[in-house]
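ok so I'm stuck.
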Amino acid sequence: MKFLCLVHEEPDNGLGPQTEQEAQELVNEHLDYDETLRQSGHWLYAQALQPVETATTVRVRNGKTSITDGPFAETKEVLGGFVMIEAMDMEEAIQIAAGIPSARMGFIHVRRVCEFKSS
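replied:
not stuck anymore, here's the structure
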């Protein structure tokens, strides 16, 4: 089964990297964990995202497109990246998600991926 682990950051909680060196150490931890997941056969894909300030929100209502700079909602958390994994079940996916380094300073939202068959 495929699961998407959405890596949420809480920038104002004081738990994240405070210096460039700490930020690079966190990136290295993520890359090391990705390699661990590759070797175990759980890793499918992962990517960090640019800061939320670079986002654009697109909505279509009654055929009209509306574009807003930034995130779609005011929240304390921001989506910082994602990891796509293969796991036997939700329990295993949760164990894998708990190893994602950013879980120590934010949270990981784990969801099973719908796999539709084309007709």
